[in-house]
Q: What sequence folds into this?
C-alpha cells in the first residue's frame, strides 16, 4: 500500500473546516452542552487553593485529595473539572503560608484522573508557548488522552501573562497580541494533525515540521478546546478555536457589579464567535460561600478574611499587576483575600438566585471554587444542587436521542 502523500502546504485553516466534538451529538461535550447551566469544579491542585488565608481547612494540593473531589463532583452530576497551571519560584507568593509554592502539574494531574472517573470532562491547562512544547508533541499526547478518557479530555490553552514565568524557561516575555498570534498557529497545527489522513509538512511560522503524522485520531473530531480571555485578541482567538471561554466580570468580583457589566461583554463575545461562523459558551469562576442563612455565610466570609496572610495576598496581587492580562483591568476588587473571580455569598436560596441572574446575564456555566473544598462541596451538593434542579438550571443527564425526541415533540 502506498504511503499517503505529504502536504507541501497546509490546507485551508478556516476554523469551520475542523470538526468540533460539539458537532457530534453523542460526544461527552455535547452531553455537557445540553445542560441549561454547565457546572464545573476548579480543583485546588495548588497549595492554598484560591485563598491566602490561615483559617483552618482540609483543602490540600495532593492528588489523592483532588481525585476524591473529582469523584465526588462526578457523583453529584458536575460536568467538568479543571486545573490551573502556574510556575512559582521557591516560597511561592510568600507570607507565612508560602502561598502556592507547591502545585501539581495540571496536564499530568487531570490526565491521571481519566483512570479513576467515567463521565466527567477533564480539562488541563497548558502554557503552550513555554519551553519545548511542539504541536506534534501535544497532538500525540492529546489524541492518546482522548482515547484513554473516551473523549472526555480537553486543553485550556494559555499563553502566559506573568512577567517572571518565561524566565524559568530561558525565554523573554512575548508581547500580548503576538502570543495570541503564536497560539493561533499552534492550535491550527493541532487541528491539522488531529484531522489530516496524511503527513503534514510546513516551514512555519514558529513551528516547522516535515512529514508529521499523528495517530490515532481523536474519537469525536478533536479534544475539547478551552481558553480564558478578556482582551480583543484573546476573544478573537476563542472565536476561532474554543468550545468554552472562561471570562471574568469586567467590573469586579461582587455580584452586583458583575451583573451590570457582563451582558455587554458576553454580547461582544457571541458576536465575535458568530462572525467566525461558530458558537462559544461562556464560563465564569465564582467562589461560593454558603451557609444556612445569609448571616452565617457572611460570618464565614469574614472569618476567612480576618485570617488573611496579608503578605501573601499583596504579593499575589502584585504578581497580577506586573503581568499584562487585560481581563483584570478597571476592576474593583473587594474582599481580596477571598479569591476567585466572583464572590457568591449567602444562603442556598440566595446562591441559586444569583446563579439564575448570572444565567440571565448570558453566562452558560460556572466553574466553582470553595474555601474548604471537601466539606463545602458536600454542603453545596446537599443544599444548593436540589434547588438548581428545581429552578431548571440543571436537568437529568439524557442521551442525545431522548433530547432530540423532546425537541421534536415540543416543535410539533
A:
Amino acid at each position: 500500500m502506498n504511503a499517503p502523500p505529504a502536504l507541501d502546504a497546509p490546507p485551508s485553516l478556516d476554523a469551520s473546516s475542523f470538526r468540533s466534538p460539539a458537532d457530534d451529538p453523542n460526544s461527552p461535550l455535547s452531553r455537557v452542552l445540553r445542560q441549561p447551566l454547565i457546572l464545573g469544579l476548579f480543583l485546588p491542585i495548588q497549595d492554598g487553593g484560591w485563598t491566602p488565608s490561615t483559617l483552618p481547612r482540609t483543602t490540600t494540593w495532593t492528588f489523592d485529595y483532588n481525585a476524591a473531589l473529582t469523584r465526588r463532583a462526578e457523583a453529584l452530576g458536575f460536568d467538568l473539572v479543571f486545573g490551573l497551571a502556574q510556575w512559582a519560584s521557591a516560597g511561592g507568593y510568600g507570607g507565612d503560608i508560602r502561598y502556592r509554592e507547591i502545585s501539581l502539574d495540571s496536564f499530568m494531574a487531570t490526565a491521571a484522573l481519566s483512570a479513576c472517573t467515567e463521565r466527567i470532562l477533564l480539562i488541563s491547562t497548558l502554557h503552550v508557548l513555554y519551553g519545548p512544547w511542539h504541536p506534534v508533541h501535544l497532538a500525540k499526547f492529546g489524541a492518546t488522552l482522548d482515547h484513554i478518557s473516551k473523549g472526555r479530555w480537553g486543553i485550556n490553552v494559555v499563553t502566559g501573562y506573568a512577567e517572571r514565568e518565561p524566565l524559568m524557561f530561558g525565554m523573554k516575555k512575548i508581547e500580548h497580541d503576538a502570543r495570541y498570534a503564536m497560539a493561533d498557529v499552534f492550535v491550527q497545527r493541532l487541528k491539522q494533525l488531529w484531522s489530516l489522513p496524511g503527513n503534514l509538512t510546513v516551514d512555519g511560522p514558529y513551528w516547522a515540521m516535515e512529514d508529521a503524522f499523528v495517530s490515532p485520531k481523536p474519537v469525536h473530531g478533536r479534544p475539547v478546546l478551552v481558553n480564558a480571555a478578556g482582551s480583543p485578541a484573546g476573544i478573537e482567538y476563542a472565536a476561532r478555536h474554543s468550545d468554552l471561554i472562561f471570562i471574568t466580570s469586567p467590573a469586579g468580583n461582587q455580584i452586583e457589579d458583575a451583573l451590570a457589566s457582563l451582558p455587554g461583554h458576553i454580547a461582544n463575545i457571541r458576536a465575535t464567535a458568530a462572525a467566525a461562523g461558530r458558537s462559544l459558551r461562556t464560563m465564569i469562576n465564582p467562589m461560593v460561600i454558603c451557609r444556612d442563612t445569609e448571616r452565617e455565610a457572611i460570618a464565614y466570609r469574614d472569618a476567612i478574611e480576618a485570617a488573611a496572610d496579608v503578605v501573601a495576598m499583596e504579593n499575589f496581587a502584585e504578581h497580577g499587576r506586573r503581568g499584562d492580562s487585560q481581563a483584570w483591568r478597571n476592576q474593583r476588587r473587594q474582599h481580596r483575600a477571598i479569591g476567585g473571580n466572583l464572590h457568591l455569598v449567602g444562603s442556598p436560596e440566595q446562591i441559586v438566585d444569583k446563579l439564575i441572574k448570572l444565567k440571565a446575564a448570558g453566562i452558560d456555566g460556572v466553574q466553582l471554587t470553595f474555601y474548604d473544598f471537601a466539606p463545602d462541596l458536600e454542603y453545596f451538593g446537599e443544599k444548593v444542587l436540589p434547588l438548581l434542579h428545581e429552578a431548571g438550571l440543571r436537568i437529568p443527564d439524557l442521551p442525545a436521542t431522548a433530547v432530540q425526541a423532546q425537541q421534536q415533540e415540543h416543535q410539533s
Remarks:
- The CA atoms of residues 62 and 195 lie 36 Å apart.
- The chain has one domain: 15-411.
- The radius of gyration is 21 Å.
- The first strand starts at residue 38 and ends at 42.
